[in-house]
Amino acid sequence: HDMRSPQVAIMALAAELGADNAALASRIRSQAQLTLGLADGFVQLARVREVGADFESHNLAFLLQEAVDRCHAPAMAKGITLERDIPDDLVFADIDPGQISRMAGNLIGNAVKYTQYGGRVIISLALADPGEVQISVTDNGPGLPPERQRDPFTRFGSRSNSEGPSAGLGLAFVKRVVDAHHGRIEVRPNAGGGTVFDIRLPVTQPGAD
């Protein structure tokens, strides 16, 4: 909260600069948003590292549907199709609902952010090996840049580009959540161009109630 409040205030002040300072206001908002993202990202990373996951039996299908819905507006703005391959049936697993929801939102949001206009993002959920579920997020964007392909989950630092500011913490958070759930994650190229993230999670966690 102590880090968030000044950044929110800075963005509010930037909005009052007026049309004559529109370019400066935009730069100020961009940097404030970046700092705000850093603050939120570091808090979430620290929370997973220090307290782990709080497991409960929860419907994964419902969480994924919600995560897709949250990304609907930015996808529509870019003409991106969000294709759901999520069962209508209940798919229960021992998870931390808050962490999995944020993780799914990060992956889908990144796919939308970096996929070109008119592209497609596929979100799927299926039973995998006995005792596991698989979540997949597939896009047909440009793929991971070469410097990220060796270790995509390392934080590469904050940056701003044509797609807007990024704190560089999203994939690091995804990996930490998967580890906290005793799962596995694989990143591979999409045959049609782009990237596929496959996550496998155990249906039942060791020691979960």
What does this protein look like?
With 209 residues, this protein is α+β, with helices and mostly antiparallel strands. It has helices at residues 4-14, 22-51, 60-70, 72-77, 97-114, 146-149, 170-180, and strands at residues 56-59, 81-85, 92-95, 120-127, 132-139, 159-161, 164-166, 184-189, 195-202. A hairpin with a 2-residue loop joins strand 6 (159-161) and strand 7 (164-166). Helix 1 packs antiparallel against helix 2 and helix 3 (60-70) runs parallel beside helix 5 (97-114).
**Tally of individual helices:** 7
Query: Mean pLDDT, nearest integer?
Result: 81
Count of extended strands? 9
Largest sheet: 5 strands, mixed
Task: Give keywords.
single chain, 209 residues, alpha+beta, five-stranded mixed beta sheet, two-stranded antiparallel sheet, 44% helix
Summarize the entry for a quick read:
The chain has 209 residues and is an alpha+beta fold.
Topology (elements, then pairings):
Blueprint: H1 4-14, H2 22-51, E1 56-59, H3 60-70, H4 72-77, E2 81-85, E3 92-95, H5 97-114, E4 120-127, E5 132-139, H6 146-149, E6 159-161, E7 164-166, H7 170-180, E8 184-189, E9 195-202
Parallel strand pairs: 2-4
Antiparallel strand pairs: 1-3, 4-5, 5-9, 6-7, 8-9
Helix pairs in contact: 1-2, 2-7, 3-5, 5-7
